[in-house]
Amino acid sequence: MKAELQKNVIDTFKELNYKLASFSETELNTVPFEGSWTAGQVIQHLIMGCSGFPEMCAGKTEKKSGKPDQKVKDIEALFFNYDLKMKSPEAIIPSDITYNKNTLTLSLLKIEKELLNVSETYDLTLTCLDSEVPGFGKFTIYEWVSFALIHIQRHLNQLQAIGKVVIEK
User: Fold this and answer.
1) What is the pTM of this model?
2) Structural domain of 141
3) What span, in angstroms and rounded, lies between the C-alpha atoms of 37 and 45?
4) pLDDT of 169
């Protein structure tokens, strides 16, 4: 379970970094269409949403019965339904500013390292008691890391769509 999760972290961040690299500084900060975030804002949203895992996992936890990946299929079903338009929680809405590609890249590298460290050093079957996702309740550490990766994968689809509009051919 641990090795598979770590491979998923590496593969997901490799794809995300590759996608980020495909945007120029200008393209990164270009609004593709009305009502959309820029690619930079999408990446910043992911940074905000995937930060703080070491602190959360070091908080209150408990062993619960059930499978440690019990909620992953439900998370995937929701996040991989691209017909569903989701509204971001206020706490992870990115600012409408000009984003720096290098700064975003460094932040992503830090988060990747943190998620790899969490998946290596913590008992993935423990349930985190200090945080939860509305509609899902409390997650195991395995589910939290999976949630972050599924969240990234959903937005990779969005970055692909933004790239089709703003990247000069």
Assistant:
1) 0.95
2) 2-166
3) 10
4) 53
